[in-house]
Predict the 3D structure of the following.
Amino acid sequence: MTRYGLLILPATNRVYARSAIDLTRAELEIFGSSALDGRIGELDTEIVGGATYVTFAGDGLTERDLAVLGNLSAGYALFEIVGDLLRPVEWSRLDRYDDDLLTIQKYPGKTNEQFTKLLLNVTLLASDWAGELTSRRFRVLDPLCGRGTTLNQALMYGFDAAGIERDQKDVEAYRAFVTTWLKQKRVKHRVLESGPVRRERKVVGRRVRIELAPTREEHKAGQTQLLDVVNADTTRSAEFFRPETVDLVVADAPYGVQHGSRTADQGLTRDPLALLAEAAPVWARLLRPGGALGISWNTHVAGRDDAAAALADAGLTVVDEEPYRALRHRVDQSIMRDVLVARRPA
């Protein structure tokens, strides 16, 4: 069996960098079991030339397999281990646009881009379509989208991206960013809608919908992506998105430090469980059967078992296998972040 060494992408966040090895091992194990038929094993770490590598054994990895592994959130370069030598391995990524789509925005409370990609990956790999990572155009909903970090990663993968966010300033900031970025990069796009949404002569929210494609040829052929962002409360998501039209729901819940969670009954609260109890049933109805929901949150303000119970009460099946329980990591002194993933039964 061939052995490989994975060089970890340097993280700009030093606290996250300390967790990157363990997170990568868990993510790699999830990739192996969900998308590569269990053909990855013997995971370990090894220091070569002063750099730490995640090493693993791969059984007959194909070009398609390498294209899947190329999307590991912290993967920088892959090598085949031949004796004491490292032989570079060609792999490819799904990335459709320049990477500054993910990195150029800077603001307090922004989620680390590497973690955003990991959260999207492990959610997708829990769905019924894990084997279609490189071929299916998924529809991703971030029901707490803020300024669009998850939406941008979904677009980077070539997916359709939808989001809902209560804070009008965040939605306006994201609209301004993405429209400016598309123009500066000369990405072929068309704004389908931008402005208030009215029902029975009342404004119930604001919405921006943009059709885009990485090349003019794809746009002309109708091979377009859709970005759809709504300014409204997440508990009203079903008013703007039809049931069973979303493949993946991916959310980084407010941590109660830079942000707060909001519910209709309690208003601003630092308890994400209140938000989950009210919103998870709405999110679950938007998922297609076989789809998956992934959420991260601060365990200092809500325990894992309680969060899992809220998802189960919404009719979802929590994925509790070992690698999914190994995604807990420190963000800073006041935030210990964990990840829960659940499926909607087919």
About this structure: The chain has nine helices and 17 strands.
